[in-house]
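The pair is quoted verbatim below.
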Amino acid sequence: MAAGTTPGTPGTPRVLRAMNDRAALDLLLAHGPLSRTRIGKLTGLSKPTASQLLARLEAAGLVVATGTTAGRPGPNAQLYAVNPTAAHVAGLDVTAERILAGVADITGTVVGQFELPTPGRSHRAQSTVEQVVRAVEGAAKAAGVLRAELHRIVVGTPGAFDPSTGRLRYASHLPGWHSPALLDELAAALPVPLEYDNDVNLAAVAEQRLGAARDHEDFVVLWNEGGIGAAIVLGGRLHRGWTGGAGEVGFMPVPGTPLVRHVAKANAGGFQELAGCNAVLRFARELGLPEPGGTLPDAAAALLSEAAQAEDGPYAELLHRSATGLAVGLASLVTVLDPELIVLSGGVIAAGGERLRALVQAELAELAVPRPKLVLGSVQEHPVLCGALQSALATTRDEVFDTSR
C-alpha cells in the first residue's frame, strides 16, 4: 500500500472495484440480465476486468447466472442478473381504515402483500404495535421470507412524526398513533431499521422513481383522497419542513371558504373544505345529484368519475366546481414555489381523469403567474406503498451493494 493511504481511500483499488461493482449492479437493475461482454461495453471495462467483477459479485451472492443468449448469431453467452434474494424490504401504507403492507426483493419486485383492516380498533396501548407487527408478518409470510430477514421497513402515514418529540402531528383522525412512546415500542417490536414518512411524500417518491416526475428536480404532488395534501420536491429532494409538516396544505386558508380557526383540533382547513372529498359531496347535494354509498373518498371518486363523462348538466358543473377549488389552492402553492411540474394524484383526482386535469390547468392559468405543467400521476396502484418500498430499497441497496466493506 502506498504511503499515506488507508483502506477505503478514494482512488485505491478497493474503492475503484466497489465503484465498478455498483455501476454494474445498477446497470443490471436498469436493463435486466446482461452478458459479460455487454456489461464491459456499458461500463467501459475490459473483458478480463468484467469477468473478475462478475465472479466477485457472484461469490458475494449479489448476482446469479440466469441463462444464455440463445437465438442470437454467434456462440451463446452467459447472462447475469441481480440476485433477487440478496435482500428484502417492507413498506406500509397506513390509513384509518387499514394497514397495507408489502415486501419487495432487492430488484424492486413486490413478492408479498397483506392488507389488515383496522376500522374501530381498540385503543389499548399495544394495539397499534400489534397491528403493525401483524401486517409486516402477513406480508413477509406472503413473500416467503422471515420477518427477521427484512433489511428495512418504511412506514407511510398521514401527517408526520415531529422529529423533536417523536409524536404524530397533522393527523388527529388516525387512532392509536399519537402515543409519545409509540416509536420506541415499534422499534422494540420490530428490531430492524424503521423509517417513517408522510404518505403523500412517499407517493412523490414513487412518481419520482417510477412515474410522471422522473427526470424532474422541482415538482409538487397534489394528493386528494381521504384528505388533501401535497409533497414538495426541490432540487431533487423532498422538503419536509421543521416539524415534518411541509405540504399539509389541507389546512391552508384559501378564498371561497369561511376562515377555519383551531385547525389542529378541527383536523380541517380552508383548502380541504374547498376542494376535498367532502366538498365534492357538498357540490353534489347543491346540484341535486344522488349521493353514492361507501366511504367519503369512494363516494367523491364515484361522483367525479361520472362527471368526467358528462358534456353538460349538473355533473359537468360538479367537475368545473371541483377544478376551480383545486386550482385556487394550487395558485398559492405555485406562486410561492414556482415548480416545473405538478403531479395530480390520489383516488379522488384520478377519478376525474384527463378532463379534470385540463380544467384545473385552464383555471390555474388565470389565477397564477407561474405556468407549471400539470400531469396526472402515473403510479396508479398503491402509490404510497410503492413509494415506501422504493424509499426502503434506495437505502438498502446502498448498504448491500457496497462491496468495499
Remarks:
- The first strand starts at residue 34 and ends at 35.
- The chain has a mean pLDDT of 91.
